[in-house]
Amino acid sequence: MLQVLPRDEFLRLLTLKSTTFDQRTLMGQTALALGVSRPARPGLYLCLDALAVLTISMLHGFARLELKEGADAVRTHWRDWLGAVTKAERFPIPELFFTVFTMADMTHRVVVGDKQEAAAALGRFDQAPHNLGFVSIHGVLQQLRANARLAKPKIVLPERFTVAPNEPGYKDWCGEIDTYRERAEARFKVKTKAKAKAKGQRPARAPARKRLVTAGAVN
Hints:
This protein has helices at 7-14, 18-26, 47-63, 67-76, 78-88, 115-122, 137-150, 170-199; strands at 4-6, 44-46, 97-103, 108-113, 129-136, 212-216. By secondary structure, it is of the alpha+beta class. It has a four-stranded mixed β-sheet with strand order 5-3-4-6, sandwiched between helices. The chain is globular. The two termini are 22 Å apart.
C-alpha cells in the first residue's frame, strides 16, 4: 500500500537534479515522509517521500524558511503532516496548512491545521513569533500531481497516497509504515557503522536536531 518510485522518477517528479538532492541530503536539508532521512531500500522512494520533499521545497520557496529548518519540522512532525495529507486527499475544505513559527529566541513551533487552528495557537505561545512560514497541504498535493502530468515521460501516480482510519486496510497500512520505518532505521545504522569502520572511528550518532515543539495538530 506504500507505493514506491525508482530514484529517477522520484527526482523527475520533484524536478531536482541528482547532485542537488544528494547535496541537500548530506546537509540535512531533506526529510522523507515517515520521519526518516533515507529510504528503506536503496534507489526506491515512496510517493509520500516526494510529497514530503516538495513540502520542504515549497516552505523554502514561498515562505523563505531555510531548507534545514523545514526538513527538521517535517521529519519531527511527520505524523501530524501525514494526518493532514490524509484529510486533504479526501476533503477540499477547510484548507490545511503546515506552519512553522520562528520565535524570538529562534526556536520553532509547528502547527498543522486550518487557519483558525494556527491563529488559536498564537494565544498559547509563551513568546511572540519573530516570523512564520506556511504551505498549504492541498497546494502541495496539487503541485505534485501537476509535476507528474508535466514530466516527460509522464509519471503515473496512485489515486491516493494514504488510507484513512475508517477505510478498509487501514490497520495493515499502519503496520506497513511501522515495518518500513524499522527497515529504514536499520539501514541507516548499518551504513553509519560501515562508514565509521572504514575511517577507523567509533560509529557516529544521528545528527542532533533543533528542538521543535508542536503547538497544534490535526487529530
